[in-house]
Amino acid sequence: MLIDILAAAGGEAAPQNAFGFKEALEQGGLIAQTIFGIMVIMSVGTFFILITKLLEQNKILRQYKSVRSGFWKTSSLQEGATKLEKNSAWRQLVDDGLAAQSQHTKMTDSLEAHEWMHGSLARSEASINSRLSGGLPFLATVGATAPFIGLLGTVIGIYRALISIGLSGSASIDKVAGPVGEALIMTAIGLLVAVPAVLAYNWLQARNKRIGELLTGFATDLLANISSNGAVRPQVMTQASTQQAGKVAAKPAAAPAKPTTKA
Q1: Distance from CA of residue 197 to its chain's centroid?
Q2: 3-state SS assignment for residue 135
Q3: How many other CB atoms sit within 10 Å of the CB of residue 15?
Q4: CA spacing 20 to 30 A to 158: which of 148, 198, 216, 237?
Q5: Do residues 104 and 117 make contact, with C-beta atoms less than 8 angstroms apart?
Q6: For 40-88, how does the pLDDT look when each residue is reduced to its tens digit (9 = 90+)?
Q7: Distance spanning both ends of the chain, measured CA to CA
Q8: How far apart are CA 149 and CA 171, in angstroms?
Q9: Residues 73, 238: contact at Cβ < 8 Å?
Q10: DSSP string, 164-207
Q11: What is the CA 206 to chain-centroid distance, rounded?
């Protein structure tokens, strides 16, 4: 701003920056613009997958709270299924478990019911995990390839700088600043695209692992409940019972009575 004021006071125009980001893309031509477009697509896709998968994971974790609080308090699995949201992962496991139980009665071979229902629940759980993992390969691909795509732009920028030096016969700053600036910009863009993709992939993968553990535990409880005709149920700890258990555990044990001696 000070330079502009001094230039205006002196009656001279302020010098124009000919080496900005826009100018670098224009000088880079179609190749630089194509690489930049690919980077933009990768970045938009990364944040789209991050937001959508995060919302999906939060929905499943929120539904799990209702599973723990209300599902196992019902008298039967059929009644408990009605308390779960339709098209949810937990409802799918319950429906597939009940379907496997009814299908086993129609079989004529000696396949054990436990083995058949275990395989059915495992197949249902695998399909849920597959849906949760959707989009993560794209994040892994972006994290692995974006730096190299940016490096391609860097190589092209340096090549253009060398051509400018050869044609002009001198390595003056005005000849190489544009191509070198373009090369550095492409390197920075590649890193800016790759780092969020890697972080998002690792974070979503860790959350998917946690959800997978919850699904496995719920499927195991379902299998035990179906195999025992409803006799086996997981212990549901409410907030009140948890607080009561904590008070009992924190209460000190009573001191032993002193033995009495006879005179």
Answers
A1: 10
A2: coil
A3: 9
A4: 198
A5: yes
A6: 999 999 999 999 999 999 999 998 887 887 888 888 888 888 888 888 8
A7: 104
A8: 27
A9: no
A10: HHHHHSS--HHHHHHHHHHHHHHHHHHHHHHHHHHHHHHHHHHH
A11: 7
| One-letter amino acid for residue 151 of the chain | L
- Encoded tokens for 182: 């373009």
86 — phi, psi (to 5°)? -70, 150
What confidence tens digit (pLDDT) does each residue in 79-122 have? 888 888 888 899 889 888 888 888 776 765 555 777 778 888 89
* Six token digits for residue 112: 């054990």
The pair of structure tokens assigned to 204 is: 């979503």
CA angle 103, 108, 113 (to 5 degrees): 50
Question: Which run of H or E residues covers position 219?
Answer: helix 173-227
Contacts 24+ apart (CB under 8 A), 17-22: 18/178, 19/177, 19/178, 19/181, 21/185
d(CA 159, CA 76): 72
166 Cβ neighbours under 8 A, 6+ residues apart: none
What is the 8-class DSSP label of residue 84?
A: S
